[in-house]
Design goal:
Number of strands: 6
Number of domains: 2
Order of helices and strands: EHHHHHEEEHEEHH
Distance between the termini: 54 Å
Radius of gyration: 20 Å
Strand content: 15-25%
Shape: globular
Largest sheet: 6 strands, mixed
Bound molecules: iron/sulfur cluster
Helix content: 40-55%
Structural class: alpha/beta
């Protein structure tokens, strides 16, 4: 069991606002990030409305398993790479493979794609590594569970703990998700992380932030506001605001959403 650095003990702890009572709710970083873009899309996720499994997300999921294995067990040799990928798929990803409808003969192309991501990943270095796929959970208010899994945790010497999220595609806008992880780390571990960062393994782009008590407290307020908005909408039987943008393109509610369709038409020119 690895130990985690504790550089900035939280005294007093991060306050979590009073919350409207209601249905129990589990909030993930993805849900929070989605809500920050379009509240109704997030409500759709909570109703179980997800987009179909995509090849890109399968490649990303497998790459994350490979990265975690590299960090925890050491480098993976070229001669064993395909077998390792097949083992990872067999251990937890077969249902996703089935949902994609891929034939076994198409698997090698995916393994090759993950292999080229892995080659780039290996150049990033792992100094100070403390843990991969680190689960975090906190219940800061009755019936509200915050849950997340940090791709990698590093101890950066005097700079404190660094939480890293690997992206296998474009970097996107990771600030909300990273802020959520910083909050969760502060609530569960009782310390403010020294740094949170997102790294696109495919492009090399990087986004990083040094969290502060004020910033984490503000994220706690936004999460609380989200829970209040969702519970109000459920109690009153109303929809949440639909905020259209480029993300509508991949929204599973697009077919029933006039706002999203208008945005998509504009974007498509
Ligand atoms: S299509 Fe766009 S506006 Fe409509 S619910 Fe989805 S994300 Fe929101």
């Amino acid at each position: 069991m690895r130990s985690y650095h504790s550089r900035m003990p939280l005294d007093p702890p991060i306050p979590f606002p009073e919350i409207r009572s209601g249905e129990a709710l589990t909030v993930s970083g993805t849900l929070f990030q989605t809500f920050e873009k379009c509240p109704e899309q997030a409500a759709g996720r909570l109703r179980g409305v997800y987009g179909p499994e995509s090849r890109a997300s399968f490649v990303g999921g497998l790459a994350h398993r490979v990265f975690a294995r590299h960090l925890s067990a050491g480098p993976i040799g070229a001669e064993e790479f395909t077998a390792v990928c097949r083992e990872e798929i067999g251990s937890s990803m077969n249902p996703k493979l089935g949902a994609l409808g891929l034939k076994p003969s198409q698997l090698q192309a995916i393994v090759d794609e993950v292999g080229s991501l892995y080659e780039r990943f290996r150049t990033l270095g792992a100094e100070g590594f403390e843990g991969a796929e680190v689960p975090l959970e906190s219940e800061p208010a009755d019936g509200v569970t915050l849950r997340g899994k940090v791709d990698a945790v590093f101890g950066d010497g005097g700079a404190g703990t660094r939480l890293v999220d690997w992206k296998t595609g474009a970097l996107g806008e990771p600030a909300a998700q990273l802020g959520f992880y910083a909050l969760l780390w502060a609530l569960e571990r009782g310390e403010i992380p020294g740094k949170v960062e997102a790294v696109s393994v495919s492009s090399g782009e990087r986004f990083e932030e040094v969290p502060s008590r004020a910033g984490i407290t503000a994220i706690a307020s936004r999460v609380a506001e989200m829970v209040n908005d969702l519970r109000s909408a459920w109690d009153e039987g109303t929809d949440l605001p639909r905020v259209a943008g480029p993300w509508c393109r991949w929204c599973p509610l697009l077919d029933e959403c006039s706002e999203g369709q208008a945005a998509k038409a504009l974007l498509d020119g």
